[in-house]
Amino acid sequence: MLAADLTAVYMWLTGWLAGKSTGQGQLADFVMGTWLNPRLFGGRLDLKMFFEVRVSWILLFLLTLSCAVKNGLTGGMFVILTAHFLYANSCVKGEECIPTTWDIFKEKWGWMLIYWNLCGVPFVYCFSSWFILKNPQYTLQPWQTGALLGVLFCAYYVFDTANAQKSHFRNPNLPARKGAFPQFKYGRLDHPKVLKTHCGTDLLIDGWYKYARKIHYAADWTMAGVWALS
């Protein structure tokens, strides 16, 4: 919490000194941010993306891993550890898809995002891991563990490939990270079907998106349900 607050104060102060403002007052500047993509080392390190991807999700996985080391791999702990690994790994291996997301290309990097990156994601999303650690009397039966893992893997496959389809449709020249695992061929669509909108843009209606407009969210919610049931 202290690191998040100090980082937010620093970003607000540097924005104020640089003359940046949201035009809605200093409180809005602090909470919502004035820098879109602050960078270090000559532009090679995007702070917002680094904190969102490398810090928040990897820290969440490490917290869950520490609970597993302390508690042992019970059924529920194995499910939540697997789930957090898959999510953290997907964020890192699919990093090329993240710049097109709303919070990277549109939202400014203020206290709201900084606090959520450093505190919200790792220390709120690990509640399931902490509960399993502190309540060993609640255990999953083997069939329950297997069922949850089955749902998790299916939802993850849809989540991974649907987000990849969406991102590569927006930018067909996105490179895939070499050596990243797992790589699914269904994440890229050759000559996808599109629907012309009234404003002249193309709407993807192929792959997973011929079944639902927000199917990546449905898969995300399903994985969140597995986290809760673990």
UniProtKB/TrEMBL annotation:
InterPro entries: ERG24_DHCR-like (IPR001171). The keyword Calcium does not apply. Keywords: Lipid biosynthesis, Lipid metabolism, Membrane, NADP, Oxidoreductase, Steroid biosynthesis, Steroid metabolism, Sterol biosynthesis, Sterol metabolism, Transmembrane, Transmembrane helix. It is a multi-pass membrane protein. The chain crosses the membrane at residues 55-88, 109-131, 143-159. This is C-24(28) sterol reductase. GO terms for cellular component: endoplasmic reticulum membrane. Coiled coil: none annotated. It comes from Perkinsus olseni. It is found in: Membrane. One of its GO terms (molecular function) is Delta24(24-1) sterol reductase activity.
